[in-house]
Amino acid sequence: MTDGQAIRPANTDHVIAINQGRERLTMDEPTAPLLSPRKFAELGGEGHAVVDTRSSAAFGRGHIPGSYNIQSSNPEFEQRVGWVVPANLPILLVSEDEGESRRSHHKMAFVGLDRRVKGILSGGMAGWSQGGMAHATLPQISVHELRGQLQNAEGLCTLDVREPDEWAEGHIEGASSMSFRVLADNLEEIGIGPEDHVAVLCAGGIRSSTACSILLRNGYRRVYNVTGGMGAWTVADLPTET
């Protein structure tokens, strides 16, 4: 259903609001309050979206339950926040430390998303851990582990979250395809249920971690991020189809 449709820019709503005079463009450095782990958790429970800007590996080792993993190291960071996080939700930021959260907030100002940021986790994930708050994990599997499980018919589904042109160049036989950018609104189209075991991959394991976090937020319980993605799959000379 989404094949061939253009992805709307992440800052579309903001640009329209500025043109209509309903918002003003941020000229100063954006600011947001530092929140204690308990206050942060309280707002998260009230519907604020938590954006975890750390690496896929760090997110996999432990993260705040229900958070989105959108890595600030990626050049598309602010665009990906706009694509992935529902437009009606206020945002909370969490990183390794407060400084990284501030830098992420600054990047979001380029596409007008900075005003949605309502708080930054004081002390980063270290502060969250020291506060004794709950953690969730995301298992990481290699392409060789994925290949072995697919060969053994262990009931593992594969979801490729790259773009359609990447998919056309080569993909794993039997995999489902859905861009991570539109995944949240099209879960019913991937043919994979919340109780299924699903391995998610992209080109290198970064977009797939974002997609995994979307699945986890939507009730999927057996999700695995494929480290290295199709890049590692190809280097390992594993079979693909076009």
UniProtKB/TrEMBL annotation:
CDD domains: RHOD. InterPro entries: GlpE_sulfurtransferase, Rhodanese-like_dom, Rhodanese-like_dom_sf. This is Rhodanese domain-containing protein. SMART domains: RHOD. Signal peptide: none annotated. It comes from marine metagenome. Pfam families: Rhodanese. Residues 44-137, 152-242 form the Rhodanese domain. PANTHER family: FAD-DEPENDENT OXIDOREDUCTASE, PYRIDINE NUCLEOTIDE-DISULPHIDE OXIDOREDUCTASE.
